[in-house]
Protein: site-specific DNA-methyltransferase (adenine-specific)
Organism: Propionispora vibrioides
Amino acid sequence: MSVNTKCQVFTPNRNVQELLDYIGYTQGLYGKKVAENSCGDGSILVEIVKRYIIDSMDKKVSVDKIKKGLEKDIWAAEIDIAHIINCKAKLDEIAGEYGLVDVEWNIFHGDFLKQKITNKFDFVVGNPPYITYKEIDPSNRVFVRENFETCVIGKFDYCYAFIEASIKSLKKTGKLAYLIPSNIFKNQFASNLRNYILPYLTDIYDYKNQKLFAGKLTASAIIICDLDNSSKSITYHNLSEDKKYILNKELLEGKWVLKENIANPEGVEFVRFGDYFHAASSVATLLNKVYIISDFIEGDNYITVKGQQIEKELLREAVSPRSLNYEKKEYIIFPYYYTKEGLQKYSDVEFRKKFPCAVRYLLQFKKILSERNNDEGINWFEYGRVQALAHLNQKKILISTLITGHVKVTLLNELVIPTSGLYIVPKNNQPIYDLSTAVNILRSDLFLEYAKNVGVISNGKSFRISPKDVNNFTFPVSLLK
Ligand SMILES: C[S@@+](CC[C@H](N)C(=O)[O-])C[C@H]1O[C@@H](n2cnc3c(N)ncnc32)[C@H](O)[C@@H]1O
């Protein structure tokens, strides 16, 4: 059984208390079945056992019965035997403090996801293993994709399967409290998971940018699901700002925007950014280290790169949010041209005849160029993706996909090529409003607030947004001026 040790990050006691308090694992615990299905060294289980014993003693349950209750009411699983040994030692110690000895702890050693659960639970409490798709070993990936509906699309995280399996292991009135990475609210590949949990979800306790685990950047939240719940809303608790909001479940579609559902003030018309402008990803050469040139000697008609000349006629100035920060001049090989009809491509023969120096430069990389995962019908010297190219030959705005503090907006001229970040042009090349209007909108507090809500937290302080997020931004029509 392979064990991924990177996911073995254990829950601090403060958050253990919160998990158990939020789900109501506080009293009347004798006879209530509880599961911790990835128990590690027992951070959560120790507290479960402590609460169970104290509450049962308060209710005057005999020591003998409590011992039997601990054995049949509390169930755990863990894949790593070393942790089970530590965990049992901790549980023995805590039980011993209350005069309970030789308890046969019911901890299953093995893969919880492959376990057929026959006894269902009143409570499932946990902090499951988070393992990114890349890090799940290939045979396990296939198993998870084939057995969990939350994992059928794209690059799922291992924890999605745990959430699904845990919900399935609840009694009809059972409840789940799970500490999860908050990117599940926004990640593209967690959309099936969001749809799966939404009917049961009652509360989200969002730690926002508080870091729970030393040395880890994960942004965390606790979700509470209740199988017996039919409410049309959830309560969203922003723990950083000590605020809570009631959110209508019907409005949680696509990426979840977790903030107050502000009703549009009467009489104020709202419009969508994407109806006037178009945000898109920058060019994708699929081999920037060949196409983007930052180390060169500049001549009149050629630049020289490691002794090899390239015709300047084939080059465009390349700009990215990063190069703007460093004020560094970079060129990009641009093997296309535009006419009134739009983007034009060179044939192989034309290209070789017109740019013999650049061809010599590119041929040095012919093997890696041919190994790219290109769009269909691409010549060997062209970029891997054509999508971004059609609208580039005009003035545009560049913003970073990563928003930190404020939205940095840069206007670029027709000839400059954005090589990373998002670029924005007027919709359909027919500006009703010119780009200065888009600049004002993107610099507004409203857009920043929106980006924070819709973006995926990247490294604690930054939010990653996509072109679709920008196009979907709605704002009062008064900003269009
Ligand atoms: C994030 S840790 C959390 C441990 C504990 N729940 C806590 O909160 O302190 C996840 C644990 O899941 C265990 N694990 C990983 N894959 C598992 C699987 N398929 N079945 C059971 N346990 C697993 C890991 O060994 C690790 O101890």
